[in-house]
Write a structure and sequence with these properties.
Layout (H helix, E strand, L loop, with lengths): L6 E5 L4 E6 L2 E10 L4 E9 L8 H14 L4 E4 L2 H9 L11
Parallel strand pairs: 4-5
Antiparallel strand pairs: 1-2, 2-3, 3-4
Length: about 100
């Protein structure tokens, strides 16, 4: 097992956020860009052998914090990201208004 603390990185070439521990990718949050100011989260996934360790929440939080630091808005097409935002009201301001 890798002893490094997992961290979230944006991988624009792959259009996804990655939760990494060293070189190992523990989970991904795929997105597509909708114009210059909107990220649409389409799918979030944690490696099945790493489920139940809070990695999905850490990935969602890290991705949303990164978006928060920009001028972009979020569309949560992914059920996991939508539920995370629902449970963490501090991120609701990132949602793009319909």
């Amino acid at each position: 097992m890798n002893s490094q603390t997992p961290a979230v990185f944006n991988n624009p070439a792959q259009r996804r956020y990655e939760l990494r521990s060293g070189e190992a990718v523990l989970g991904i949050a795929n997105y597509r860009e909708d114009g210059a100011n909107t990220l649409v989260f389409t799918h979030t996934e944690v490696d099945p052998q790493n489920e139940g360790q809070g990695y999905g929440s850490q990935l969602a939080r890290g991705a949303l914090e990164d978006v928060k630091g920009s001028s972009k808005k979020v569309v949560a097409s992914c059920e996991f990201i939508a539920r995370y935002i629902d449970e963490h009201p501090e991120y609701r301001g990132l949602l793009k208004k319909a």
